[in-house]
Design brief:
This protein has 268 residues and is α/β, with parallel strands linked by helices. The protein contains seven helices and nine strands; from the N terminus they run E-H-E-E-H-E-E-E-E-H-H-E-H-H-E-H.
């Protein structure tokens, strides 16, 4: 059975990183629909281009307080999955395993996160991330539908970054523990931490991309594209980079509480 995947893109044509993500999803046997508000050039064969206005009018597009449309895409995906079902993957997520290996039941994915200010206690926690969602049989009142309803009513001017994404899904899963979604471990779709990206992904033969990061059950690799922007590294640049690139931070150990970067709940 073919699994239908969905992705969103807005603005300039997809860059090298996004093109890699798109081609990986197609190569692993998914039927991929790319939603956008304008035609995009040079899309790979087999990709289904769809008008994002079928989901939300372009006038609904908004940026969060950081000037990003990331929060809009959080809302957008819930509508897509509520109407069409299937798999959602962000445009910075690389598919590593065939579609035939995907778990049959609906699932959500998790990541390791450093809780600093909004949530207590301080420290490393496992939270949901909505970079990959599998919702094959949408139902009214399921977790994705609840997220859609809340995202629609949430005041858009109050959104900083992850309120409609990981924060919302994590809160809903705690309020509704009988939601019925399998919760996949971080190694399944977020094996490399946001604090390691993009340095760990751009090194030739990167040491941190061996075990324990990538395991046989790792189905997706989240590249955290937002962290590329913050690091001043273009997703269009060749990778791995030339030796003349700025040195990468040490990745041999997780950051300590005093040295951990101040995270956002969602990066792409």
């Amino acid at each position: 059975m073919t699994i239908h995947a969905h992705m969103f893109w807005h603005g300039d044509p997809p860059r090298r990183l996004e093109r890699l993500a798109i081609r990986s999803v197609l190569a692993q046997g998914y039927a991929l629909t790319l939603w956008s508000y304008a035609p995009l050039p040079n899309l790979p064969p087999g990709l289904i281009a769809a008008d994002a206005a079928e989901i939300l009018p372009r006038s609904a597009l908004f940026t969060n307080r950081r000037g990003s449309i990331a929060s809009f895409t959080d809302w957008f995906r819930y509508i897509v999955l509520s109407r069409h079902g299937g798999l959602w993957t962000d445009s910075d997520v690389i598919a590593l395993r065939p579609a035939s290996d995907l778990p049959a039941r609906k699932f959500l994915v998790t990541q390791r996160e450093w809780f600093h200010r909004r949530l207590r206690p301080r420290g490393w926690k496992t939270t949901l991330n909505n970079n990959v969602i599998f919702n094959p049989t949408p139902e009214p009142g399921d977790l994705v539908d609840l997220a859609r309803a809340l995202a629609e009513r949430f005041p858009k001017s109050a959104i900083d970054w992850g309120e409609l994404g990981p924060d919302l899904l994590t809160a809903l899963s705690r309020l509704h523990p009988a939601h019925g979604y399998a919760i996949m471990p971080p190694e399944f779709a977020n094996p490399v931490g946001y604090w390691q990206s993009p340095a760990a992904l751009l090194r030739p033969n990167p040491p941190r991309l061996s075990t324990p990061n990538l395991k046989p059950e790792t189905a997706f690799l989240h590249a955290y594209g937002e962290m590329w922007r913050r690091a001043g590294i273009s997703p269009d640049a060749p990778f791995p980079p030339a030796a003349s690139s700025p040195p990468s931070p040490k990745l041999s150990a997780s950051p300590t509480p005093d040295s951990a970067p101040r995270p956002s709940s969602k990066h792409y």
